[in-house]
């Protein structure tokens, strides 16, 4: 599972209750066993201090949905009286996990197969753009056309001051049109929790659009040369490219590690997170589970030593478990998180976006 699909959690205040447990349904009395198992875990969460409204929400969620066939597990993350994550695990955890903490425990979710990413397909030119929103199931959820200012859009040949003023007016019209498209993409991305933005159409228009997107949208945007708004454009090629990009985004794999773009060890990795320079964070669960880091008021402000954040003028600093804080901080900067079996210094490595 790509944790970037859980960006909406960043707006939720803790404490969070996280539970990972066996939900196998392979015996005649499976429902009864599941109920008894949950009662024990519920009591553990209560003893750790979670509020009753959140426990009640988890009570409602546990028996919900179709029971799994055979061995399976369940992952629940809740806060503020709501269940925020409810996932079926392909196999039961080796032992149940219950945590009540300021941050959610998300690391086990990285081993889940990826779901289809909700995505926006944008075909843009100097006059505006056609947008299609596709949900995580591959169903078209919405189509829109952003129509900008139509005149003037084309430069003319000639010279003199009048010519220069006209050229400037054309450029300003195109810039405003592209900005209108960028604003609409940003609105849809925030509203629908989009995980991928595919930019197609005129080269200059899509490049300009990419630059005008806010960082949180730039991080999930990809340009493609397939497709266009003009008649005769190869729509089939665009659809094929979109499917490839969605599959690439949702397939769990460890990217190739370029030594020039790789840092290892907790100090270097948290520094890269603070600079929003992490594309993929690689974590070894067994190595980081006993480590702690410091976090500031912003989720991306993470450090090995408290003094590092005090030097940045953070008004509030909290010590947190590394296996909760690192995925949370990576989520805040739009980085992917992948668990690996390697032996890494401090159990963490980061693939950078740039040197």
From TrEMBL:
Pfam families: baeRF_family2. SUPFAM superfamilies: Translational machinery components. This is Peptide chain release factor 2.
């Amino acid at each position: 599972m790509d944790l970037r699909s859980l960006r909406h959690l960043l707006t939720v205040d803790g404490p969070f209750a996280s539970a990972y447990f066996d939900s196998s349904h392979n015996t005649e009395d499976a429902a009864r066993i599941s109920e008894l198992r949950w009662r024990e875990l519920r009591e553990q969460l209560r003893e750790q201090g979670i509020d009753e409204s959140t426990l009640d929400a988890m009570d409602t969620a546990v028996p919900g949905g179709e029971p799994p066939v055979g061995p399976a597990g369940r992952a629940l993350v809740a806060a503020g009286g709501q269940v925020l994550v409810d996932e079926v695990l392909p196999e039961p955890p080796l032992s149940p996990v219950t945590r009540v903490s300021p941050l959610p425990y998300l690391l086990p979710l990285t081993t889940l197969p990826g779901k289809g990413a909700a995505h926006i397909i944008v075909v843009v030119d100097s006059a505006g753009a056609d947008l299609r929103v596709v949900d995580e199931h591959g169903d078209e959820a919405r189509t829109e056309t952003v129509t900008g200012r139509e005149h003037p859009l084309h430069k003319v040949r000639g010279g003199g001051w009048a010519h220069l003023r006209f050229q400037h007016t054309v450029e300003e019209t195109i810039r405003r049109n592209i900005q209108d498209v960028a604003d609409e993409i940003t609105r849809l991305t925030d509203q629908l929790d989009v995980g991928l933005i595919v930019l197609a159409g005129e080269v200059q228009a899509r490049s300009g659009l990419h630059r005008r997107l806010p960082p949180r949208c730039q991080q999930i945007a990809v340009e493609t040369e397939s497709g266009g708004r003009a008649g005769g454009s190869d729509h089939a090629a665009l659809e094929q490219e979109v499917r490839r990009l969605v599959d690439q985004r949702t397939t769990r794999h460890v990217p190739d590690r370029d030594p020039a773009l790789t840092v290892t060890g907790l100090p270097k990795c948290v520094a890269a997170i603070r600079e929003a320079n992490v594309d993929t964070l690689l974590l070894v669960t067994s190595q980081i589970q006993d480590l702690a880091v410091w976090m500031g008021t912003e989720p991306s402000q993470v450090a090995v030593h408290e003094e590092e954040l005090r030097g940045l003028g953070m008004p509030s600093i909290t010590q947190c478990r590394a296996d909760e804080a690192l995925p949370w901080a990576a989520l805040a900067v739009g980085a992917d998180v992948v668990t690996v079996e390697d032996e890494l210094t401090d159990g963490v490595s980061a693939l950078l976006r740039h040197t």
